[in-house]
Amino acid sequence: MRRWRTWCGARAAAERFARGKFPTLDFAGGTVVHISSGVSALVCALYLGKRTGYPKQPMPPHSLVLSFIGGLLAWVGWFGFNAGSALASNSLATSAFVATHFAAAAAALSWSAAEWIKNGRASALGAISGAVAGLVAITPAAGFVGPMPALVIGLIAGRVLLLDGDEGEGHLRYDDALDAFGVHGAGGTIGALLTGVFAQQ
């Protein structure tokens, strides 16, 4: 019965949200795509449990080169996702394109700097994780902010998500091999909140 009440309450809230009773700004679907996928990943990670040997045995990516190439391909593809949400080739698409690039670059630098301070060195995997964190965080704001707020969103996302990934997995004791919740769930939430702070139009 408790689950049914929770489901009905969530459904009613979603219907009110869809009818516009809870105003929100989300340019390219960051709230819908990233928060929901991040929370889904967390639920799956908690349900499936940890990998054998985790966290005692180090489990780096199979190929750092392929991870880095994949991250860069995602960065380029994100331009189509965010700028394409303008639905035209106009100044709004250009603004979203620039905001996307600035936020990703700032988050990569912020993540790397925080990693350097914490571990004494930065890593390529950390830089590309930071870039993806910036891409996730700027998605809801891409059409509503200029270049300077995009830099700030990226800097905040890179720093906060590095800490969230390290601290969250330790406290909740889950095994998220791809940091899907740490980057997408938390990054989408940060992006949605910062959109309200920095939105200009």
How are the elements arranged and paired?
Elements: H1 2-18, H2 30-48, H3 64-83, H4 91-119, H5 124-138, H6 147-172, H7 180-198
Helix pairs in contact: 2-7, 3-4, 3-5, 4-5, 4-6, 5-6, 5-7, 6-7
Largest sheet: none
Strand content: under 5%
Low-pLDDT runs of 5+ residues are: 4-8
Radius of gyration: 18 Å
The succession of helices and strands, N to C, reads HHHHHHH
Distance between the termini: 44 Å
- Distinct helical segment count: 7
Q: What's the rounded overall pLDDT mean?
A: 86
Polypeptide structure, described:
By secondary structure, the protein is an all-alpha fold. It has helices at 2-18, 30-48, 64-83, 91-119, 124-138, 147-172, 180-198. Helix 3 packs antiparallel against helix 4. The longest helix is centred in the middle third of the chain and has 29 residues, at 91-119. The N and C termini lie far apart (44 Å). Residues 4-8 have low confidence and may be disordered.
